[in-house]
Amino acid sequence: MEDKNKNIPAGSGSKINRRDALKGLATVPVLGAVAYGVYKKKNYERFLKTTIADELGMSREEPATPAKSEGKEIRIGLIGYGIRGKQLAKALGFAHPTMVDSWIEAAEKNKNDLRYADFKAQDDLNVRITAVCDIFDTYGTMAQEMAANINREGTGGKMGEPVKRYLNYKELIASPEVDAVVIASPDHWHGPMIIEAARQGKHIYCEKPMTWTVEETYTVRQAVKESEVVFQLGHQGRQTDAYLKAQEAVEKGVLGPINLIEVTTNRNDPNGAWVYPIHKDASPETIDWEQFIGPAPWHDFNLERFFRWRCWWDYSTGLSGDLLTHEYDAINQILKLGIPHSAMSTGGVYFFKDGRTVPDVLTTVFEFPKRDLSLLYSATLSSQMSRGKRVMGHDAYMEMGNTLTIYADPRSTRYAEKIKQGIIKPDEPIYSYIPGKGADTVTSATERYFAGRGLLYTYRGGKRVDTTHLHMKEWIDCIRSGNTPSCNIDQGFEEAMTAHMGTLSYKHHKQVFWDEEKEQIIV
Amino acid sequence: MTVKSCNYTTCQTTWLVVLRVAIGWHFLYEGLIKVVNPGWSAVGYLLDSKGWFAPVFQAMAASPGVLSAVNFMNQWGLVFIGLGLVLGLFTRLAAWSGMLLLAFYYLSHPPFVGLNYALPAEGNYFIVDKVMIEFIALGALSLFPTGKTIGLDRFIFRK
After folding, report:
1. A94 close to A146: Cβ distance less than 8 angstroms
2. How far is CA A164 from CA A72, A112, A135, A440, B77, in A?
3. Per CB distance under 8 Å, which residues of B are interface residues toward A?
4. CA A282 to centroid of chain Cα atoms
5. pLDDT given at position A8
6. CA A365 to CA A38: how far, in whole Å?
7. Rg of chain A on CA atoms, in Å
């Protein structure tokens, strides 16, 4: 295959002859082939997409960006400035200057650490924290300094007026300077504080679980219903975009009949197991121990019980109240399940043998016979193997977290035809929702757990927002408009009774039932 | 680098052009697929970077401004390099630019022992991977130019 014209000097002469043109343009047709390939591929994808989208009928929009909070300033009293109290204050737009310092420093070290930028960018809710209450002096003082930090600044920034610290929650609630209270106390104080605030006509945002005992749950509901106050229970999962999409999928029957749901807790660090650090300043002199005990059985002063109260039934509701409630509320939001017909729990203290009374491994099965459905909750505090939230339907199953993914079941009735045609592939999602694909580094295993559970951040209009911020914003907006928040007293009652059923079953080693007529738990 | 005129047999020219067009096709298709998918972003790829230069690539992902520039240059870079190689247009520049892009890909995801990536590889690689082979092939093509024989460079670089 020798060619005499092998060495063609780049265009010989000034005229382009036919040979030159052919050789120069020889590879142009390749472009046509590439273009045809891209066109075919896009067409095929579009065909699959529209065919599946038509079949599912799911909307394509992101959940709407909430409107800016407007209206008169609301004056808030914060009860409890522990771990959660600090997070709630942050969600309202307030942080201690030293905390802001630490975020600035973290952002300088790691560009992916967006906590400072997120905090500065968080919407102004037009609220003021006018009163704080904590029974540990150090936290009380820090809460005052936090509330005065109205410009979201670090140390040395311009602070606002000093804020009064109350030594007793009743005095804070009674203060004429307080329109609404945020309750971030230990579980055994939630009920009494809600009742007091409702009777005093103060709006309430209370951390989950709503109550510590079954009996007070009725009183809490009555007190809130008899008042005019706006009540929101702290299940911020209500604001997670992916859950709103999941609700739509269930309402549109994308999953078909749903008979089994599995929700889980998978943690594996001391912080996640409630072994929180003990503050160096803590002592009988700096802590109002009697007030801490309150309705709980008496116990002598004990720092572990004060800082790690979640480990004892005396003050806590254990896994049921702390973590099952988030999982249950997410499912209740999507499927409107209400209180289960029965609950059966097993488990034990298997790993953290540190004197705690609440289990670190717990499995609870709730039955909803009217809905032909079982809800399984399975929790461990000694393994981080992520098991997610899975809603299993006959036609499709759904994995929920910050993202939402739906897969068709290979044996589905509804999708059988499209599976046969190769339009729906059971090993590829038929629907997935990934809100704002931003870069994110989370700091601890527990935080990663929260992020994966949709409990930390969600995206609105492409902007990363803290779900707790959105949940508190909804409450504030409802106070101004007179509307009802998404996790109101009725959902709270369902949440509390469901959690109590799980706990009672664990404690009594037997299945417990809900009497719908009498609204009673039968042990 | 100077390359004097090359004397190839037709067979040699043919295989060199086939190699050039094939690599060009790969670049062009990779580029066009990204261009026609409005949601495409290099962010996941950059964040998954490992090895010595990982901090550099992760920093690119962290800054929204840099990220959108990287996205833009990557997709259109791929398209133009692909066009250049397929058409034989500014062939050597296209080959060198392609090598630069491939070097970035290689350094961001080096196939070294102990580094595992989120995106699964379809084969088994140790130090030498397909990115490196494509890089070497472009290096060879830049030294055995064919654009002035079969390609638009024939018209551009007329004497």
Report:
1. yes
2. 21, 37, 14, 37, 61
3. 5-11, 13, 17, 21, 24-25, 28-29, 32-33, 36, 41, 43-44, 47, 58-59, 61-63, 82-83, 86-88, 148-155, 157-159
4. 31
5. 45
6. 51
7. 28
A68 token code pair: 């800016």
Q: What's the ipTM?
A: 0.85
User: For A2-19, how does the pLDDT look when each residue is reduced to its tens digit (9 = 90+)?
Assistant: 344 444 444 445 677 888
- A217-258 pLDDT, tens digit per residue, is 999 999 999 999 999 999 999 998 888 889 999 999 999 999
For residue A209, whether the previous peptide bond is cis, meaning omega lies within 30 degrees of 0, is: yes
Measured CA to CA in angstroms, residue A271 lies from A382, A388, A428 at distances of 11, 20, 36
- CA A517 – CA A62 distance, rounded (Å): 40
Q: CA–CA separation, A486 vs A491, rounded Å?
A: 8
Q: If interface means Cβ-Cβ distance under 8 Å, which residues of chain A face chain B? A: 1-3, 6-12, 14, 16, 20, 23-28, 30-31, 34-35, 37-38, 41-42, 111-112, 437-439
Pick from B49, B149, B153, B157 the residue to mutate for testing the A interface (most A CBs within 10 Å): B149
Burial B112-143 (b: 16+ CB within 10 A, else e): eeeeeeeeeeeeebeeebbbbebbebbeebbe
From A165's Cα to the closest Cα of chain B, the distance in A is 41
Q: B-chain residues within 8 Å CB-CB of A435?
A: none
Cα B126 to Cα A83, B53, B95, B131: the distances in Å are 47, 18, 24, 12
Tens of pLDDT, residue by residue over B63-80, are 778 888 999 999 999 999
